[in-house]
Design goal:
This protein is an alpha/beta fold. It is built from nine helices and 14 strands.
């Protein structure tokens, strides 16, 4: 059965890795129909809209999207792919292989995956001036006074819900089981939160994750303080299998994992929902090297491999 994939090349240097990767997939002669809706600069040029209705319709009619990195011009498409289609699990593998310029003396055996909750946390986008909180009278338990009295400043809301935490925990546990079936190891999921300083929000993520993980008795599920986790990620990354993190920590720590194996140019990414997924490298659009054709394509190629596996072409990926 023919699969339909939307292609969005991105901006700056991203297309210089994206287009050769698409050509590489073409050489595999898979039953894939590539669709190129006008998005970003192409959408603005053709229709005066970086994300016209035609692009949304193309995504809705497709099986997956392959996305180049964006400098923001294609951002509306990315936001639809992520929040519009509820691709709640951001999967970011980090695996060392010969040739990777790891800063570690002994990087052999690093093979982990970070599963980042992709919907909420501080990414709900609720921010504002501290004075807006005066009618609510939020009191800091540490400062022992209303936050509106702390002086001129800003706030950002962190949201952790039961439903989002449950679904991403199940995804992480099921991924650990799949990996164990392939490599013969014991399935291990490690969750990281700052429940010592955020006992309500981060504590709730930890509580819900621990309870949900009980549905998977074959999975060893452990929790660490987030700062301890990132320390161990640097000094002993071989000790991890699947790492489950709230949105913000997942964003930060996955970059650290990429650095441990040799840089973000090696860091692929896939965002999975219940019935849709899109794939992009974890790095940015690299405007400083645009036009030079020197961008590392490895992350883009690995992201394409993740997409092919998702589409049912595991052997090709």
């Amino acid at each position: 059965m023919t699969k339909k994939v939307v292609l969005i090349p991105g901006e700056d240097a991203a297309p210089e890795a994206f287009e050769p990767t698409v050509e590489l997939m073409n050489r595999l002669q898979l039953d894939i129909d590539w669709v190129r809706p006008p998005v970003g600069e192409a959408g603005i040029a053709a229709m005066g809209n970086p994300f016209p209705p035609e692009a949304k319709e193309a995504i809705d009619a497709s099986d997956a999207t392959f996305f180049g990195s964006t400098n923001g011009t294609s951002g509306r498409a990315m936001r639809y792919l992520r929040w519009g289609l509820q691709t709640y699990a951001n999967v970011r593998p980090a695996r060392w292989f010969p040739g990777c310029n790891s800063p570690l003396k002994n990087p052999e055996g690093i093979d982990l995956v970070i599963v980042r909750e992709n919907m909420e946390d501080t990414y709900v986008g609720v921010e504002g001036d501290l004075e807006e909180l005066e009618p609510i009278n939020f009191v800091s338990r540490l400062h022992r006074k209303p936050v509106s009295e702390m002086g001129k400043g800003k706030y950002a809301m962190k949201v952790i819900t039961e439903a989002c935490t449950q679904q991403v925990t199940r995804f992480a546990c099921e991924l650990a089981l799949k990996r164990a079936a392939l490599n013969g190891s014991r399935p291990l999921v490690t969750s990281g939160t700052k429940h010592n300083i955020s006992p309500v929000a981060d504590g709730y993520f930890r509580e819900v994750a621990l309870e949900t993980a009980k549905e998977y008795p074959d999975v060893t599920f452990e929790t660490l303080l987030a700062d301890d986790l990132v320390h161990k990620l640097v000094v002993n990354p071989q000790g991890f299998d699947v790492i489950l993190l709230p949105n913000l920590y997942g964003d930060l720590f996955s970059d650290a994992a990429g650095g441990v194996v040799g840089g973000l140019g090696l860091a692929p990414s896939g965002c999975y929902g219940r019935d849709y997924a899109y794939f992009e490298s974890a790095h940015g659009s690299a405007p400083d090297i645009a036009g030079k054709n020197i961008i590392n394509p490895t992350a883009t190629i690995f992201s394409a491999a993740m997409m092919l596996e998702y589409l049912g072409y595991a052997e090709a990926g």
